[in-house]
Design goal:
The structure is a single chain. With 139 residues, this protein is mostly helical. The protein contains 6 helices and no strands. The protein has helices at residues 2-7, 10-20, 23-28, 61-78, 80-102, 107-137. α4 packs antiparallel against α6 (107-137) and α5 (80-102) runs antiparallel to α6 (107-137). The protein is rod-shaped and about 100 Å long.
Length: 139
């Protein structure tokens, strides 16, 4: 036991602790740069963090441009539902005209169903538009 404890020194424990921590934590909170002299008591391979340059975490202009482009693409994809709503409203009133032409005596009942279909279709379009605005302005 004593023979094994001779090989363990403070500097080798420190490098082992650096190797057991996540790479991002070591790079961002590096206390000192390890040299060959500090590792000379115990043959430990160099930590991988010595190869990674020390940089602070920041967002570049290119990253912000990509985020902005992604917002616009997402909002455009969300507004496709508005076109579907327009097609649905056209289908509802087209079916109302066909139904009225086939049976004019059911005019009032067919009209109430058409208004209900119009309201549901329009609500779906407004929900899509709301999601598009949330993507653009809330995120």
């Amino acid at each position: 036991m004593y023979a094994c404890s001779k090989f363990v020194s403070a500097s080798s424990l420190r490098s082992t602790q650096l190797l057991s921590r996540p790479l991002s934590a070591v790079v961002l909170n590096r206390p000192e740069t390890l040299t060959h002299e500090s590792l000379s008591t115990f043959p430990v391979p160099h930590p991988l963090t010595s190869l990674v340059p020390n940089r602070s975490f920041q967002t570049s202009a290119l990253s912000r441009d990509i985020d902005t482009a992604a917002k616009f693409i997402g909002a455009g994809a969300a507004t496709v539902g508005v076109a579907g709503s327009g097609a649905g409203i056209g289908t509802v009133f087209g079916s109302l005209i066909i139904g009225y032409a086939r049976n004019p005596s059911l005019k009032q009942q067919l009209f109430s169903y058409a208004i209900l279909g119009f309201a549901l279709s329009e609500a779906m379009g407004l929900f899509c538009l709301m999601v598009a605005f949330l993507i653009l302005f809330a995120m």
